[in-house]
Specification:
CATH architecture: 3-Layer(aba) Sandwich
Largest sheet: 8 strands, mixed
CATH class: Alpha Beta
CATH superfamily: Thiamin diphosphate (ThDP)-binding fold, Pyr/PP domains
Order of helices and strands: HEEHEHHEHEHEHEHEH
Helix content: 25-40%
Number of domains: 1
CATH topology: Rossmann fold
Strand content: 15-25%
Strand order of the largest sheet: 2-1-3-4-6-5-8-7
Number of helices: 9
Low-confidence stretches: none
Distance between the termini: 53 Å
Length: about 280
């Protein structure tokens, strides 16, 4: 047990966030640090890893180990860190573009591998950093002004929770930036749960999608408690409209751990190259 009791402020750095006024990511950052405090994690034994995008700035705003990596590769780096240092608590943070477009393949395989880490994906259904293009979760009829055909893309959006569940994530949940305490509780539960935990947080982008201010009027708790039955969770997702909040699925798969290899001294390694 830690001798020191930490508060949410202990996990925040002195770097001032540069998000747009009203951005939901401010609240998500608060939820993450509150979850860390609820778990009383030791800051220097906690790591936050991200990719690229508005949401991926989060490591700079935390007072623990952090790595702001390259586009779509945050999960790969976070998984490598956790496998190399299983003693650390590892949380990956990113957005719907970073995680489901260029990083989509890493997302699938991290769900499948089930490394003991948590992925918080902030979903605002738009590329905010690059000025408002449609993302993989954007509605097919959203009429964007930036690099999109009139009337919308006509493409079916991804359902992040359905992808995570079908790919093998061991914990699947949805939070909302407008409910920071509820989201903090979900993130804390995700960190505690063994294996790969996925939390999609609906985080409005009021700069490019002002209509998302109305999300606060349509978000609601899940109509049923979390299930450990993947088939039942899949059935619920068939009728899910994207606004049900809470934990959907808690699996019991054993977290992935690589096989232990014998320690090899450098002198022994050099012998294999001796002439």
């Amino acid at each position: 047990m830690n001798a020191v009791t930490y508060t949410a402020r202990d996990y925040k750095s002195d770097v001032k966030p540069v998000w747009c006024p009203g951005c939901g990511h401010f609240s998500v950052l608060s939820s993450i640090t509150k979850a860390f405090a609820d778990l009383n994690l030791v800051p220097h034994q906690t790591a936050v890893v991200s990719g690229i995008g508005c949401s991926s700035r989060i490591p700079a705003y935390t007072n623990c180990y952090g790595f702001h990596s390259i586009h779509g590769r945050g999960l790969a780096i976070a998984a490598g860190l956790k496998l190399a240092r299983p003693d650390l608590t590892v949380l990956a943070a990113g957005g719907d573009g970073d995680g489901l477009s260029i990083g989509g393949n890493h997302f699938l395989h991290n769900c499948r591998r089930n490394v003991d880490m948590t992925y918080v994906m902030m979903d605002n259904r738009v590329y905010g950093m690059t000025k408002g293009q449609p993302s993989p979760t954007t509605e097919s009829d959203w009429d964007a002004s930036a690099m999109a055909p009139p009337g919308g893309t006509g493409l079916s959006p991804f359902n992040p929770l359905a992808i995570a569940l079908s790919a093998g994530a061991n914990f699947v949940a949805r939070g909302f930036a407008g409910d920071p305490n509820g989201t903090a509780a979900i993130i804390a539960e995700a960190i505690r749960h063994p294996g790969f935990s996925f939390v999609a947080v609906m985080s409005p982008c009021v700069t490019y999608r002002d209509e998302q201010r109305e999300w606060k009027n349509v978000m609601r708790p899940n109509p049923a408690p979390a299930t450990s039955d993947a088939s039942e969770a899949a059935r619920r997702l068939l009728v899910d409209d994207g606004y049900n909040l809470g934990v959907l699925y808690q699996g019991d798969r054993q977290a992935y751990k690589p096989k232990s290899l014998p320690d090899v001294a450098i002198a022994d390694f050099d012998k294999e190259f001796a002439l």
